[in-house]
Amino acid sequence: MKLIPALIGVAASLALAPVAMAERGSDGEVRIIYWQAPSILSPYLSGGTKDVESASMIIEPLARYDEKGTLTPWLVEEIPTTANGGVSEDLTQITWKIAPGILWSDGTPFTSADVKFTYEYCTHPEGGCAQLTKFEGVASVETPDDLTVVVTFSGPTPNPYGPFVGGESPIIQQAQFEDCMGAKAPECTEQNFGPIGTGPFKVVEFRPNDVITMEANENFRVEGKPAFASVTFKGGGDATAAGRAVMETGEFDYAWNLQLAPDVIAQMQKGGKGTPIAGFGPLVERLMLNNTNPDPGLGADERSVVKPHPFLGDPAIYKALSMAIDRPLLVEIGYGQAGKVTCNWVPAPEAFSSDTFDCSTQDIAGANALLDDAGIVDTDGDGIREKDGVPLSILYQTSTNAVRQDFQALIKQWWSEIGVETELRNINASVFFGGDPGSPDTFQKFYADVQMYANTFNGTDPQSYLGNGLCDKAPRPATQWQGENISRFCMEEYDELHAELTRTADLGERASIARALNDMTVENGMLIPLVHRGRLSAHSNTLGGVILNVWDSELWNVADWYRIK
Fold this sequence. Notes:
This protein is α+β, with helices and mostly antiparallel strands. Helix 8 (315-323) runs antiparallel to helix 10. The relative contact order is 0.18. The strands form five sheets. Strands 1, 7, 8, 9, 10, 11, 12, 15, 16, 17 and 18 form an eleven-stranded mixed sheet that branches. Strands 4-6-5 form a three-stranded antiparallel sheet, covered by helices on one side. It has helices at 49-55, 112-122, 174-177, 189-193, 239-247, 262-269, 300-306, 315-323, 327-334, 364-373, 402-416, 429-432, 463-466, 492-503, 507-523, and strands at 29-34, 63-65, 71-73, 93-97, 138-145, 148-153, 201-207, 211-216, 230-235, 254-255, 274-289, 339-341, 386-387, 390-391, 393-399, 421-427, 450-455, 527-540, 543-544, 562-563. Strand 15, helix 11 (402-416) and strand 16 form a beta-alpha-beta unit. Mean pLDDT is 93; it is low at 5-21.
């Protein structure tokens, strides 16, 4: 057995962009707009990209992925491998050596104890952690000294770069969060809204679902960085307003996730103030299918965990729903060259992308025939088919966004042509992608039959991401509604095959297993993939140092940004 050699680099931390600043804070203010407003500054209490990425400016992992997908040291001296002795020959241990002299923004030393604490925080048995799959297979985290972290796995682990790697798995300060363990974690408002970090910026004020004010971290480890003295991180509104604020009016310097039609982007660019940037990673717009019963008459435990869905578990139904969709048209109206048809949950990297399914051609007639053959027919003449007396009536929800509402309208029409009734609902994105355990409207709660959104994963190996399909990763009351198995998909065979992936070193075999896992989720009704999306953002023409990264936080190198003068 051998360590996975791909994606490991030794680039110096934060030395990936041209240095163009004279001294820390010399370039004044930088203004960032995310139309999905951050609701919390903790990736561990929210799986929303907006929360992960805003937090990444403040709290950091030991290592992360650069714009090429190369694993890069961040708070450590080098990436551990078997060749340098950092990974044991039997692949059961990885030892990280923290770079000396790193301080938290409050001036206290960053040590291995903080790393161990982060593990204990996320894996606390009475808590709920949105990133629990990052620690799958970890037996212990030990700290022989202040600068050494030893992660021991329960068995040989050819890909040991899950814990503490990437923007989704940063280190939090033990001194700040030690009273926020388990069920108390969501209650620690002061800590969750203002984490102490090692990143280039620190929080001055956080107004959830509105604005974050930050200032340069005077204890940041790289001399002269960040160039900006302050950050205004505005949330809310919509993608259209965000794009205009950068490319037409110049009010903001950076706009994220411009989920807009191609002609709209082209028109905005004529404003001359900013430039769109795009790149393809593993981001997929999809329909998640509720594998449980969202009947509002059921209690929280039954409604989202126990009772099976009355009809979506039937293969004829979810396959017919997929066949009725015209994906090329969705790509054309929604994304243009920034989108591709996909039939996969994991469309990239190419080695992990399955070619099992062909969903590129809409087939309304075939979908109707499939349902007819399964005996799912309209018995009362109202135009809606029934299964075992239950009408095929779907509540289809997503976040508020022009492209998504266009998709909803089209899909509703196509489904009506196969005898499926659809009610549409859209929810403010800041709420939908938030992690508030008290809100009924989060995508984790999934109080609908079908919901549409996109997400992605850090790095170029999908092992942890595919772990989001494991039975025990379903959000539920006992986890404060955290967890990434949003559909509550559960197959014993899937869990067993994923365990095999964690033990497999050969890259070809890993890719084969990953493709098989992808196929199991699509074939068995966890989701209906729609569009392989490119990340599309925009930056001001006066903002330098921006390098789009589709393999980690989009704000991964914000310490290198500077004002072009």
